[in-house]
Amino acid sequence: MNDSQGDDTVHQGGCLCGAVRYRTTGKPNDTNICYCTQCQRQSGAPMPAFANFDRDKVELVQGEPGSYRASGTASRQFCANCGSWLFWMQDGGTRISITLGSFDDPSDFPAPDYEIWTEHRIKWLSNIPGVDSYPGDN
C-alpha cells in the first residue's frame, strides 16, 4: 500500500449484483493468497486473494450476506442472491478476510504479503517471487 494512505483510507466493495455492500477504514493488516481446497472450491479459482482487516474496521452498509461453514473453525459469507464470495472469518477471531476481487478497486491493494496452504497449490503454479510461502496456515 502506498505511504500516502493513512488510518482514514476508505475502500468500498460488494457483490456482483450490488445487493451486499461494505466499507473498510484504514490499511489492511496484510494481504494474502490462499491455496486451500475449500477456498479453491468456493471461489472456483486456483488462488483466491484476500485483504485482511480488523473486524472493527469493516462496516456492512447494504444487504445481509449468507453464511456457510465448511469447517468447524470459520464462516464464509457470500451474497445469497448472486453467490459472490465476500468474507472469511475465523471463529473468535478479531480479523476478517475480504476477497480482494470484491473490492471496487482491488488494484488499490499491494501484492500479497504471503501465500498459505501451498501444499494444495495447483502444480503448474509456482511461488510468487519475494512472497513468504507456507505449506499450511501461517
TrEMBL record:
Gene3D superfamilies: glutathione-dependent formaldehyde- activating enzyme (gfa). Transmembrane segments: none annotated. The keyword Lyase applies. Residues 11-115 form the CENP-V/GFA domain. It comes from the Bacteria. Keywords: Lyase, Metal-binding, Zinc. One of its GO terms (molecular function) is metal ion binding. The keyword Zinc applies. InterPro entries: CENP-V/GFA (IPR006913), Mss4-like_sf (IPR011057). It holds the Pfam family GFA. SUPFAM superfamilies: Mss4-like. Belongs to the Gfa family. This is Aldehyde-activating protein. It comes from Skermanella aerolata.
